[in-house]
Amino acid sequence: MKTKFIFFIVFSFICIGCQGEGTPRKDIRGPVKVSVKIATLSDISESKVYSGSLAEKMATAVSFSSPGTVKTLNVAEGKKVSKGALVATLDDTAAKSALDIATAMKNQAEDARSRMEKLYQNKSISEIQWMDVESKYKQALASEKLAQKALDDCKLYAPATGIVSGKAVELGQNVLPGAPVFRILDISRIKVRAFIPEKEIGKVKVGDGVKIRIASLGDKVIQGKITNRSVSANALSRSYEIEAELANRNGELLPGMIAEMEISGKTRQEGVVLPATAIMLDEDNNNFVWKINGGKATRADIDVTLNLGGTEGILVRGLQDGDSIIVAGANKVGEGEKVQVESNNTEK
Asked: What CATH code is assigned to 48-57+187-266?
């Protein structure tokens, strides 16, 4: 009896084992968690971004025509001046004395000429004597004019309206003729300058639209147009300078600010922009993505038409508006596998 009971137990275990081998084992893994992006068809412009800086429309160097010692300065760095305003003066003591002397000599020569003229008319003096008197009078007139100009040159007037920049002298300082005292910047309009590599300059033309992004103004974007393109390359960098011009009505644009110049290129055909994490590659080097259909992953073949670079993404064709594309977790799924969407990204 004991032997029969042991045989029954062993036979039961054998039957259970055989049943386990013949029954398919169920997959206990649940749906794969993924993030998706809703495909949106759009046109993509091939834009290029170049680093540049802002510069004044025009800069005028202001200087004295005569040497001397600075007596007054009526300007301050960053302040606006108007054309014709008195901005600085030199000590004019010597110039006034020189003018007084020249005026006295002119008066003396004029008196002599008046007296000698009567004698000349009465033929009491010769032609040569009269010409000598006339010559001395003209020299005296010229000397007075020069002395007057030297006195006038002690005053410096603004040649243009603008903002004072680069003040280079102080009160009591000696200056030479032509030495810059300061500059006047015209910032009613601002130039944006950037350098374009030699291989890309052929795509840029005067009149092309540009977007100027200025970081110091909170990444403010201003629309403009290219107004100038240099015809000779920099000898070292082999790059060409281009310029765009912007209106500066409220004066917030200042020379020296760093800017990014974005030049729009040709527009690419319609497609969907996806992050690189969504693009898969099979054993035959064909690109594809996983899209969701009925809660399951389904392969969709695509053509990669443009890599936008950086974090911009990749432009692909072969998808439809509204397709749910797996952008995170794509490397964890297979054909027909159930997925669970954790988040949607509907941005283009």
From this structure: 2.40.30.170
